[in-house]
């Protein structure tokens, strides 16, 4: 049994085994992402391999965080998984220690998102939980007179996929209070696997908007543009007569005084951070959902 720390995304056998394990553990796989050329060298698997099969894994995603306007080198840990037949052997612990040792000198902080069944695991490695907040905006009852040109994007159409790649390659961070950069690959993963029906291009804003309705609640996941988009104006145009509330899945800097804020619910993943310097007191924030690895 060995730890393979190399970037094996182009090794068909290991990649196939990694996909089988991720589908078994999480119900997701990465093959379409790879075939689209979106699995880049910022997402690296560190795996235990036995008999040419991936049996445990901890992945890293290299990116930068923007916190209060300052860019910070960050490494996000994700896809932490072990095959059911090999659990209880300490493999995840060894991989976590390996990753932290490998990248300690290349970043300013590590962070990850954990579900509530494993909250006691990560503090053993120096991680501390940081509370995130959700931001809501109530919409008045008056009917909305919306005039906006939205094109629904289809990731299977080459011209639409090229537009997505072009926009995310030159995008502004969605928030300067707590945003991310260098996450093109992650956005493409969500576009392909999670929100393919929620992607729109706004000609008015020259921006890609990722949103969906859940009854009278609109979930606004992301706004992708290389320009400063007027969020309040955009919101007023994309709401419908049924929309009564918007939840922002990022920190809405521009209208932070107009939204109401509350802590994340008990069913949402918990953010853990291991910082190599003092972050100080952070205002209410939400790491953009489409940057979760």
Automatic annotation (TrEMBL):
What are the alphabetically sorted keywords of the record? Answer: Acyltransferase, Transferase
Q: Where is the N-acetyltransferase domain?
A: 1-146
- Matches recorded under CDD domains: NAT_SF
Molecular function terms from GO: acyltransferase activity
> What EC class is this?
transferase
Gene3D superfamilies listed in its UniProt record: 3.40.630.30
What EC number(s) would the UniProt record show? 2.3.1.-
* Taxonomy, superkingdom: Bacteria
Mind telling me which Pfam families this protein's record contains? Acetyltransf_9 (PF13527)
* Alphabetical list of PANTHER family matching this protein: ACETYLTRANSFERASE
Protein name from the UniProt record? GNAT family N-acetyltransferase
Per the UniProt record, the lineage of the source organism begins with:
Bacteria, Bacillati, Bacillota, Bacilli, Bacillales
